[in-house]
Specification:
heterodimer, A: two-stranded antiparallel ribbon, B: alpha+beta, 5-stranded parallel beta sheet, 17 helices
Chain lengths: 246, 665
């Protein structure tokens, strides 16, 4: 198929960006979206132009590095996937595709489609861990039974890949789904109980400090989340925060 | 230099304990004055950085990704082995040790493997304490899976995302230390050289991938945990950025590179669909627990399927060749990876491949769905369940076990694997070879360590499933933190290593020269053009099976590609900005050297062992034929051109295990 691409180009964080149009042809429907971007970049390099910078790494939907906003949707027009798992069969010949970076005040653009998501790391530094040293002398892994239900729920929360689609898609640029998922994982496990109150307070405080907006329960984040992280995690975080504040 | 593995004296099971009792320790107050650089933040690098920081060292950690959490360990699916014997099925430290040495085709170092098996149980305890949500049974205890090449269930897992959960565990431990200021994290930084001062590793040169700035970082020791080199094949299951550069740069500065030819070709990957393909996707090997692998018995059916006249589900049981079950009745679909991969290639080479490229076999879940469905019907008290009901119940169980893998497959291939068998084909997945290290995980350069997949590792010529995660975490959490202390105990009075010395000047200059070359060369061909060309030679001539003629051609061709690369490569953009093409150019330059050494290593190793199959050395039944005189590690010393690399041999001695013909029949 032949496509027209409108891509956000921005030289660096201080430069002014703009949308630039490109044409690609003979795109196979079996290609992934990023493979289509590879074709474009090979074409640009051959023409002596600078290729489009975009984040990507594992290309199997788990590293959370890829981050495009395609036709107005984080990770493009399909559900439960990252951009690297988006296939060209979702588009048709002659389509015009708009490609922008994830946009949020807390995710400044570094170059073209690459954004800085280190705010997520700093939220994790504030409490996204259990304080246990590596000693080899922790108690036996089966010493505390954990109900299958709690373990499965913790796993569902822990499956977050930290891509930032929730923030990019939220009209308030809220990071509540991301933070809620991490708070939930530990809140659901006995190992996480000891530090639960401090954890949720510190992580939420850091989240606010980074400039993420608040949650107004539109649920857009859940829809766009490649890993299907549920809104329940936001509710659980709020409950934990309430509990910690009383 | 003679290779000294520094394996401690004493009986196998006491070596590690005795060693730990006797090593030098660094007093906590002194650790504050010692700096350690860790390159790579996957399971090995991440766990090492966190643990060294907990101990009190000042750690500087480097990752080319935008966060340590994105290292490619995250993509490991199936699980992590540990000799816990929670299932009471006869597992033990010795049995894990035995399985690993046997699975590695008797090409690994006994003492290292035993230590790995010994600390494996601690890893699970540690990870559970960190909040890793491993799968549990209804009683609340940890669940296990079995994996290829073994007869016990010792694999712990978190859905099909075990690597992700373990990496996030290590990342959380790092976060705690970053918050304390004990780890200084350098995201979007790439190590481009190591700095050697008075024969010791004392720092690195790194490029800030956002600004392009070249930075000097000093330390008392340098730890490289930068992963494997599977991307030398261009197409592999590695991440796009996975590279050999850190490992290759230290090789060029004196660290020997061991067994580069030992590559693992994973049997269950999604087949290639076209020339634009940028990477291959692995489907966890755990699928082989329930999936049955087959191709049609009759070539007519193969052709009919390729032409779309028949569907795989049209073929009756009699018309299918479950070739693994046929050839290996004892292990069936659970034979080790190398055996399963070669068997698939054998069938496809004989013309029985089931997709348009002729490179695919079926992995079929129909039998498992039926078995689980019947079991569920019984549990739920449904008498005389209909076929539809059985399928419905069975699919639910299969979904609970492999749901995310099935979803991933469907997204890529656009077929529903619950209704029609999956198509799979082997792909490059893991490299057992790597930087040579002694028992302390130190390379041949003092103060320079190598951990995880980047080292030549404990897996011998072939790695068993769910052992990569085990080794990465064992190295980082439980081995390196001890062994590095023994070395650093001599450095308590050294003081900060200055970076304004001639050694740093020289290393920085060579890095800058190379970047300058790339950005001004103005050739006519892109970096990917050369990478793909190299990958094709590697796959065709250094792939699943190799022979003398092909390897000699490969050496010649890789050299030619390299020469062409240095003449004609085109890198757009500048040095002082984010420039992904420039990053790729540096990585491919190193792959082009490694590739040649790889072929040379494969040529010299006149035997078949694990992931290295030489066509000249096979049994009458087509199985790998090991040669006794090759019971050694090939450790290559860099002396200029890869073709001139000098071979050093570390003889492998087996005192606690009988070296046998590997049989999975």
């Amino acid at each position: 198929m032949n496509l027209t691409l409108k891509i956000w180009r921005q030289k660096d964080s201080s430069a002014k960006g703009q949308m630039v149009g490109y044409k690609v042809s003979d795109i196979s429907e079996h290609m992934s979206f990023l493979e289509m971007m590879d074709v474009l970049n090979e074409q640009l390099v051959a023409e002596g132009e600078e290729p489009v910078a975009f984040d990507h790494d594992c290309r199997e939907g788990i590293c959370g590095m890829c981050s495009m906003y395609i036709n107005g949707e984080a990770h493009g027009p399909d559900r439960g996937i990252t951009t690297c798992q988006l296939h060209m069969r979702m588009f048709k010949d002659g389509d015009t595709i708009t490609i922008e970076p994830f946009r949020a005040a807390a995710f400044p653009v570094i170059k073209d489609l690459v954004v800085d998501r280190s705010a997520f790391d700093r939220i994790q530094h504030a409490g996204g861990y259990i304080s246990v040293n590596t000693s080899g002398n922790t108690q036996d892994a089966n010493a505390i039974p954990i109900s299958k239900h709690a373990a499965d729920e913790a796993m569902d929360a822990a499956t977050c890949i930290g891509c930032g689609a929730c923030v990019a898609t939220c009209k308030n640029s809220s990071a509540m789904l991301f933070v809620g998922a991490k708070v939930s994982q530990y809140a659901l496990l006995p190992q996480g109980q000891v530090e639960a109150a401090d954890r949720v307070k510190n992580m939420v405080a850091q989240m606010d400090l980074e400039g993420f907006g608040n949650c107004t329960n539109t649920g857009a984040c859940e829809v766009e989340c490649p890993k299907g992280i549920s809104l329940d995690n936001i509710a659980r975080m709020n409950r934990e925060l309430m509990k910690a504040s009383i | 230099m003679a290779l000294d593995s520094k394996v401690p004296e004493g009986s196998l099971k006491d070596k590690w304990t005795d060693y730990k009792n006797k090593i030098n320790l660094v007093n906590p107050a002194n650790k504050r004055h010692i700096d350690v650089i860790v390159v790579g933040t996957g399971l090995a690098g991440g766990s090492a950085a966190a643990t060294l920081a907990e101990l009190g060292y000042n750690v500087k950690a480097f990752a080319y990704q935008d966060s340590p959490r994105r290292a490619h360990s995250i993509a490991a699916q199936g699980g992590i082995n540990a000799a816990k014997n929670y299932q009471g099925d006869g597992d033990s430290t010795y049995r894990l040790f035995y399985d690993t040495v046997k699975g590695g085709d008797y090409r690994s170092r006994e003492a290292n493997v035993y230590r790995l098996a010994e600390v494996s149980a601690n890893i699970i305890d540690q990870c559970v304490a960190q909040g890793v949500p491993f799968a549990r049974d209804y009683g609340g205890l940890l669940d296990n899976r079995s994996f290829g090449g073994v007869l016990v269930s010792r694999t712990f897992y978190a859905k099909g995302q075990t690597g992700q959960q373990l990496l996030l565990g290590a990342y959380s431990a790092m976060n705690r230390q970053i918050a304390r200021g004990k780890i200084e994290m350098f995201n979007r930084h790439e190590m481009l050289d190591v700095v050697i001062v008075d024969g010791k590793a004392r720092g690195i040169i790194a490029r800030n991938l956002v600004t392009g700035e070249i930075e000097r970082h000093s330390a008392h020791a340098v730890v490289v945990g930068s992963g494997g080199y599977g991307n030398v094949y261009f197409l592999s299951t590695n991440a796009m950025g996975s590279n050999v550069t850190a490992a290759w740069k230290i090789h060029k500065k004196g660290a020997y590179f061991a067994n580069p030819c030992y590559t693992q070709i994973h049997p269950t990957c999604i087949p290639r669909s076209g020339d634009y393909q940028s990477k291959l996707t692995l489907m966890s090997e755990s699928l082989r627990n329930d999936g049955r692998i087959w191709v049609p018995k009759n070539i007519d059916d193969v052709l009919a399927i390729r032409e779309g006249k028949k569907k795989p589900t049209d073929l009756s049981e009699d018309e299918r060749d479950y070739y693994l079950e046929r050839r290996y009745p004892a292990f069936g679909n659970l034979v080790p990876r190398d055996v399963a991969s070669r068997a698939a290639k054998e069938r496809c080479d004989a013309g029985y491949g089931v997709n348009a490229t002729g490179e695919a076999v079926y992995l079929d879940f129909a039998a498992a769905i039926e078995r689980y469905g019947k079991e569920q019907a019984k549990i739920q008290g449904i008498d005389n369940p209909s076929k539809g009901k059985i399928t419905e119940l069975g699919e639910k169980i299969v979904e609970a076990k492999y749901g995310n893998l099935f979803q991933m497959y469907e997204k890529i291939v656009d077929q529903d694997p619950y209704k029609t068998p999956m198509m799979i084909y082997p792909a490059v997945h893991y490299t057992m070879g790597g930087v040579w290290v002694d028992y302390n995980l130190m390379t041949t350069v003092p103060g320079l360590y190598c951990i995880g997949e980047a080292n030549f590792s404990d897996h011998g010529a072939n790695r068993l499933g769910a052992s990569a995660l085990m080794q990465g975490l064992a190295d980082g959490y439980f081995v390196l933190p001890y062994t590095i202390g023994d070395y650093l105990a001599d450095d308590i009075r050294t003081g900060k290593i200055p970076t304004d010395t001639k050694e740093f000047d020289e290393a920085e200059k060579s890095v800058k020269d190379q970047i300058e070359f790339f950005t001004t060369n103005n050739g006519t061909k892109t970096v990917d053009y050369f990478h793909k060309k190299l990958g094709k030679v590697m796959w065709d001539k250094c792939g699943m099976s190799r022979n003398e003629k092909g390897l000699k051609e490969a050496i010649k061709e890789i050299k030619e590609i390299r020469e062409e690369f240095w003449k004609d490569v085109k890198v757009p953009g500048g040095a002082n900005e984010m420039n992904p093409e420039l990053e790729k150019a540096g990585r491919v330059a190193d792959f082009l050297e490694l590739g040649e050494l790889f072929a040379k290593d494969a040529l010299v190793r006149e035997e078949s062992a694990g992931g290295h199959f030489r066509e000249e050395y096979q049994t009458e039944e087509g199985e790998a034929k090991r040669m006794k005189e090759f019971q050694f590690v090939s450790a290559w010393e860099y002396v200029g051109e890869p073709s001139e690399a000098k071979l050093h041999k570390e003889k492998l001695v087996y005192e606690n295990i009988e070296v046998k013909e590997r049989s999975y029949k």
